[in-house]
Amino acid sequence: MKRGFPILAIVTAVLLSFALYEALIGAPTERSMGDVQRIFYYHVPSAWTAFLLFFVNFGASIAYLVKRRPAADIVALTSAEVGVVFLTVNLVTGPIWARPVWGIWWTWDWRLTSTLVMWLIYVSYLLLRRFSSGGQAPLLAAALGILGALCVPFVYFSIWFFRTQHPSPVIGGGGSLDPRMAHVLLINWAAFLCLAWLVCWTRYQLEVAKRQVEEAQSLESLLEGSR
Amino acid sequence: MSFLAVMRATLAKDLRLEWRSKDAINAMLFFSLLVVVIFSFAFEPTAEESRKIAGGLVWVAFLFAAIVVLNQTWARELRNHVLDAYRMSPASANSLFLAKAFGNFIFVIVLEALMTPLFIAFYRLGAIGPAWELLPIATLGTWALVVNGTFFAAISLRTRSREVMLPLLLFPISVPALLGMVNATTAVLTGEESARFWITLLVAYDVVFTIACLLLFETILEAE
Amino acid sequence: MPISDAPPIIIADGVIKQFGRFAALRGVNAEFAPGRLYVVLGDNGAGKTTLLRTIAGLAQPTRGTISVLGAKEIKTVCSQIGYMAHPSLLYDEMTGFENLRYFAGLYGIHDDAANFTCREAIISVKLDPDLNRPVGQYSQGMRQRMSLARALLNDPTLLLLDEPFSNVDFHSAQEMATLLGQMRDQGKTLLVVTHQPGLLEPAADEFVWIDSGKIVDRTSKLRAGTQ
């Protein structure tokens, strides 16, 4: 896999550049919102990427509980961290888009609100990892990861129903998408996925290295005959 | 049948101990009264407005009361490492969990029952919709908070800043249930819409999370 | 001392227990024969408590295996093990009898059988079963004896006692020591961690010395000048 990394890095760089070009120049200008709408190509794929990563976290959490393999725990940690970052991008680009177009910084629309709650859930996951004493973090986090993932459908469904009863301005727009825009959207998503993969891979290796150092240090203290 | 016997014995013990040292109960009761009064100072709605926002106010107040109850779920077990004795026995971890959850449920319901008349008086509340629906709403909503809260209380036993971790973990995951409780209550109070969807959501939420907590609790208990 | 032909009741193979970077057990290899009273000695922090907890199944070895009563999954044989530690493992707010009635219930002992068993256990540690005082108001000696009574409720084959005599008045300690000897005579196996081995010297079959997370010596007599 080691050789794959530079290849992935190059592919990511190329895709990101191409996607950037397409988003800023290649894609057609939106009729009502103008160029501001182009942030859509970052706002949406970052959420989709985060979703995918949290799904990976769900799987890794279950895998850890069943098999107790450290690799599963590291995948869970990595996917949660990188997922939170992408979700933060989504939460930040939302208001940046909303402000010039609708004059408001925030609206409790369905998607934005649900994303905020998901963000809170996974930040609490990361905090649990930080605050766990001793070696319990993997086990406790795995349990929380499962509960958090189970909660996500409830979050989206409940907020969606609430919003259909109490409509408010929608960021991200409904309605159909021009096929050229859809095309650019997918290119950006592909680029984001490669970036996510790259970052996760790096974070994974970092965590593995960190744990190896800790292992070595504890082995050292183990072999020392006396204290 | 041993599962039920252990659960019943644990619940009976907890209720008996709580009754004996009435300190905790008295403190919680007074705290609930304080919460209602503070809220009344903070929000002074007219009778018309109050029906619209009471659902939210009441459930946030209940949430505060619930956190106080939940934070002391395992306090007695911690003191003399009683959980070690429990783990050494063949008794099922889930009978312990359900006993604690039911105990918390009873305490929170008692607090809610005491706070409700106060809210009705201070806010001149009256239900326009079917008031009987408030009972299943209260039951389902309280169980949603208590089942996850008891579970997270057990998780926070193994963390630093225990009292902060519990609400920190509980609040985000409880959002769908909170939406359900608040909107169902508002629907009944204002009579403007049916609470049916929210009640169904609460039932689904309770079922899913009760099963999930039961499946995961033993693992949490055995984490060193 | 007669050589026992029976299979060892505890087998520890290369047991390592680490808490982060600190290694409490650094490779314990030992077999303990049934029907013996073992006294475990060592300085503070040598790993005695960790060893006992690992045998009890309350802690999992980081590496190596431990089997108790023929089982690697110690939870499956937990009903044959009695455990006592420095914390009393009792509820301060209940009387001794109420405490034992509750814990008897955890072992599936109910109603009249439970009443009988609990009374017997309390009498065997020379306490009054009808004493109406909550355990929190007991003296340390009484509390340790009640804790021992709790450990005896399920009539265990293997008793693991962690510092049962600490802070206990001399009279209570002697009572307990005599009782422990009697239990060994009844065929039970006992592992007792203590800083006062003199109390058990007449009854002990073997003294196990632990230092820096390893068993460094096993003797049949207490060394001169140790107390």
Descriptive overview:
The complex is a heterotrimer of chains A (227), B (224) and C (227). Chain A is mainly α. Chain A has one domain (4-208): Four Helix Bundle (Hemerythrin (Met), subunit A). Chain A has 6 helices and no strands. Chain A has helices at residues 4-26, 40-67, 70-102, 110-131, 137-165, 179-223. In chain A, helix 2 runs antiparallel to helix 3 (70-102). The longest helix of chain A has 45 residues, at 179-223. In chain A, 36% of the residues are buried. Chain B has one domain (2-222). In chain B, helix 2 (23-42) runs antiparallel to helix 3 (47-71), helix 3 runs antiparallel to helix 6 and helix 8 (162-190) runs antiparallel to helix 9 (196-222). Chain B has helices at 2-20, 23-42, 47-71, 75-79, 82-88, 93-123, 134-156, 162-190, 196-222. The model of chain B has no long low-confidence stretch (mean pLDDT 90). By secondary structure, chain B is an all-alpha fold. By secondary structure, chain C is of the alpha/beta class. Chain C has a single domain (10-219), classed as Rossmann fold (3-Layer(aba) Sandwich). Chain C contains 5 helices and 9 strands. Chain C has helices spanning 48-56, 96-106, 111-124, 140-152, 170-185, and strands at residues 10-19, 22-32, 37-42, 63-68, 81-84, 158-162, 189-193, 206-211, 214-219. In chain C, strand 8 (206-211) and strand 9 form a beta hairpin. Chain C is globular, with a radius of gyration of 17 Å. The relative contact order of chain C is 0.19. Chains in contact: A-B, A-C, B-C.
Beta-strand content of chain A: under 5%
Order of helices and strands of chain B: HHHHHHHHH
Which fold name is given in CATH as the topology of chain A? Four Helix Bundle (Hemerythrin (Met), subunit A)
- Rg for CA atoms of chain A: 21 Å
Architecture of chain A, CATH level 2? Up-down Bundle
Sheet having the most strands of chain A: none
Distance between the termini of chain A: 41 Å
Write the SSE topology.
The complex is a heterotrimer of chains A (227), B (224) and C (227).
Chain A: H1 4-26, H2 40-67, H3 70-102, H4 110-131, H5 137-165, H6 179-223
Helix pairs in contact in A: 1-6, 2-3, 2-5, 2-6, 3-4, 3-6, 4-5
Chain B: H1 2-20, H2 23-42, H3 47-71, H4 75-79, H5 82-88, H6 93-123, H7 134-156, H8 162-190, H9 196-222
Chain C: E1 10-19, E2 22-32, E3 37-42, H1 48-56, E4 63-68, E5 81-84, H2 96-106, H3 111-124, H4 140-152, E6 158-162, H5 170-185, E7 189-193, E8 206-211, E9 214-219
Parallel strand pairs in C: 3-7, 3-8, 5-6, 6-7
Antiparallel strand pairs in C: 1-2, 1-4, 8-9
